[in-house]
Backbone:
């Protein structure tokens, strides 16, 4: 597999409904780095992650991987992006293992299941149906599921919600391991994960507000 | 790719068996609706025999409609639909896999129970097999067209009624040709144009559903 060197966005603007969420947003990320998205509620952190994943269309701007535009390239996204949103995408009726097995099968990575369950410390829950789990355990299951993805770029939206201290530590370890192997992470969070300061870039969504003039231009 | 398609179908079929088994409820609804007619019309055997095929078809349409919202609703609410949109399988094939799962869990049980309801309605003996053939040809169209409707209303909180208004008019061709096909087979006219129309309608909906439904799902995820 080709190793990704850079992932960047230039002059990105996104509309939701009739409202411009942010405009002129840009960042550049290299292998082994994490981009921490911060900003007040409603500043567009989730919107940015969904746009990068291709779930929302950008109004303007471009997304580049190794200087090739990957905007709207679903095949590239399926191979290189792992998105984990607010919703856990787990079926309450199935057990933890069945849930993880299904998605690992979709991504063709069945061999990673055991390791990822261990990594998130939920081995003892493997045969428990998800409906009996606490919210923190459910979040760990969703994280273990996303660890089965081969993607170079992780898009995490508030991955720490519901996690206890031990869970935070396990998540930080998994992130460090991913970054050490040259992976990139874009993560919306307000929690300090204790990662190496040199590898953290911070993007404040409040720096790219939708100005009134831009809205007038739209019309 | 192919393998993924079956994985999604099997998962949806399994899900319908968990959590209260929607299949059995759809079948129960089907039986109750059909059995209301003898109660309402009275035990006049000739009358029942004459309307039997039409009543069974109408009840099948309604039973099918009842289960449409579960095609996408749960996946939309728990975020699985986001993951499907980002999975290696094109969304067009994903919705087709889900339509197939809907047909297996809804229409197949309906077809299996139909002979019993035929007896209840005093249906002509010669009409049993033709009705089953016509249902095999026509019910896939119900699931396919229904999938489009389900994907259009998935982001609405209470889309059930709107879904019925959208979809029932589109089911009319299936009803008309479904009943006519059975009549033609019973009368043994030779060529059976209504059955061919029914098959053509199923193929037509098979051709448009993947594109229409995938486009609607993408809009819903926006």
Residues:
């Amino acid at each position: 597999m080709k190793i990704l060197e850079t992932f960047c966005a230039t002059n990105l603007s996104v509309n939701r409904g009739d409202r411009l969420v942010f405009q002129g947003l840009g960042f550049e990320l290299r292998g082994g780095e994490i981009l921490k998205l911060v900003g007040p509620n409603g500043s567009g952190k989730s919107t940015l992650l969904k746009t990068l994943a291709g779930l929302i269309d950008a109004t303007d701007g471009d997304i580049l991987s190794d200087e090739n535009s990957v905007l709207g390239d679903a095949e590239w996204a399926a191979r290189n992006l792992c998105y984990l949103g607010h919703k856990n995408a787990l079926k309450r009726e199935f057990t933890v293992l069945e849930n993880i097995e299904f998605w690992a099968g979709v991504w063709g990575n069945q061999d990673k299941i055991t390791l990822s369950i261990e990594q998130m410390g939920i081995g003892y829950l493997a045969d428990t149906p998800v409906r009996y789990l606490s919210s923190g355990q459910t979040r760990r299951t969703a994280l273990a599921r996303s660890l089965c993805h081969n993607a170079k770029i992780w898009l995490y939206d508030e991955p720490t919600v519901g996690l206890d201290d031990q869970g935070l530590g396990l998540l930080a370890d998994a992130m460090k391991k991913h970054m050490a192997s040259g992976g990139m992470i874009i993560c919306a969070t307000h929690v300090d994960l204790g990662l190496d300061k040199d590898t953290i870039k911070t993007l404040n969504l409040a720096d790219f507000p939708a100005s009134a003039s831009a809205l007038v231009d739209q019309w | 790719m192919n393998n993924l398609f079956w994985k999604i179908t099997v998962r949806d079929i399994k899900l319908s068996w968990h959590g209260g088994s929607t299949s059995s409820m759809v079948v129960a609804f089907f039986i109750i609706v059909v059995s209301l007619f003898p109660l309402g019309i009275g035990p006049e055997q000739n009358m029942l025999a004459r309307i039997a095929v039409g009543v069974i078809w109408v009840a099948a349409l309604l039973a099918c409609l009842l289960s449409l919202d579960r095609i996408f609703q749960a996946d939309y609410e728990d975020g699985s639909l986001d993951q499907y949109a980002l999975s290696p399988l094109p969304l067009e094939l994903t919705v087709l896999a889900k339509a197939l799962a809907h047909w297996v869990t809804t229409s197949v049980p309906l077809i299996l129970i139909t002979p019993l309801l035929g007896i209840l309605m005093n249906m002509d003996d010669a009409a049993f097999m033709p009705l089953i053939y016509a249902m095999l040809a026509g019910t896939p169209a119900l699931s396919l067209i229904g999938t489009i409707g389900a994907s259009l209303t998935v982001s609405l909180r209470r889309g059930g009624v709107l879904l019925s208004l959208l979809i029932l008019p589109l089911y009319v061709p299936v009803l008309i040709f479904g009943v006519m096909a059975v009549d033609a087979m019973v009368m043994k006219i030779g060529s059976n144009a209504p059955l061919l129309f029914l098959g053509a309608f199923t193929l037509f909906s098979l051709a448009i559903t993947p594109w229409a439904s995938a486009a609607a799902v993408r809009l819903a995820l926006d």
Q: What stands out?
A: The radius of gyration of chain B is 18 Å. The mean pLDDT of chain B is 90. Chain B touches chain A at residues 4, 7, 11, 14-15, 18-19, 74, 77-80, 82-83, 85-90, 221-222 (CB under 8 Å). The longest helix of chain B spans residues 91-120.
